[in-house]
Amino acid sequence: MNLVVSGYRSRLEVWPPVGKKKFETLSYLPDLTDVELAKEVDYLLRNKWIPCVEFELEHGFVYREHGSTPGYYDGRYWTMWKLPLFGCTDSAQVLKEVQECKTEYPNAFIRIIGFDNNRQVQCISFIAYKPPSFTGA
């Protein structure tokens, strides 16, 4: 299917639903570089959200554990790496924690999340590291 958008011909494509794991925000993009991760953390900090690093040793994605369809809690809770980084002002601090977690658990999925402590909600979550053994299936 071709569409003309703003004078340019565009081709709409459908993301293949089989063989592609969905993770968090930005999961449809290639893995983020350290520079791109730092920019995302800077965005999180500019919004006054509190960064936190979490890791998961078995599943880095929502999965079916208690029934035929994923319930709200299936695959959502990961292990927190240390404490949230209250008062963090520099993305390098967060990336240092990601690196320490990666060193300690090289076969884990690692994500960075941002909490808004005023609204008491998680505002962003994205994968910072996938283990080398992950095939993407």
Automatic annotation (TrEMBL):
<keyword id="KW-0601">Photorespiration</keyword>
<comment type="function">
    <text>RuBisCO catalyzes two reactions: the carboxylation of D-ribulose 1,5-bisphosphate, the primary event in carbon dioxide fixation, as well as the oxidative fragmentation of the pentose substrate. Both reactions occur simultaneously and in competition at the same active site. Although the small subunit is not catalytic it is essential for maximal activity.</text>
</comment>
<dbReference type="InterPro" id="IPR000894">
    <property type="entry name" value="RuBisCO_ssu_dom"/>
</dbReference>
<protein>
    <recommendedName>
        <fullName>Ribulose bisphosphate carboxylase small subunit, chloroplastic</fullName>
    </recommendedName>
</protein>
<dbReference type="InterPro" id="IPR024681">
    <property type="entry name" value="RuBisCO_ssu"/>
</dbReference>
<comment type="similarity">
    <text>Belongs to the RuBisCO small chain family.</text>
</comment>
<feature type="domain" description="Ribulose bisphosphate carboxylase small subunit">
    <location>
        <begin position="22"/>
        <end position="131"/>
    </location>
</feature>
<dbReference type="GO" id="GO:0009507">
    <property type="term" value="C:chloroplast"/>
</dbReference>
<keyword id="KW-0120">Carbon dioxide fixation</keyword>
<dbReference type="GO" id="GO:0016984">
    <property type="term" value="F:ribulose-bisphosphate carboxylase activity"/>
</dbReference>
<keyword id="KW-0602">Photosynthesis</keyword>
<keyword id="KW-0150">Chloroplast</keyword>
<comment type="subunit">
    <text>Heterohexadecamer of 8 large and 8 small subunits.</text>
</comment>
<keyword id="KW-0934">Plastid</keyword>
<dbReference type="GO" id="GO:0009853">
    <property type="term" value="P:photorespiration"/>
</dbReference>
<keyword id="KW-0113">Calvin cycle</keyword>
<dbReference type="GO" id="GO:0019253">
    <property type="term" value="P:reductive pentose-phosphate cycle"/>
</dbReference>
<dbReference type="InterPro" id="IPR036385">
    <property type="entry name" value="RuBisCO_ssu_sf"/>
</dbReference>
<dbReference type="Pfam" id="PF00101">
    <property type="entry name" value="RuBisCO_small"/>
</dbReference>
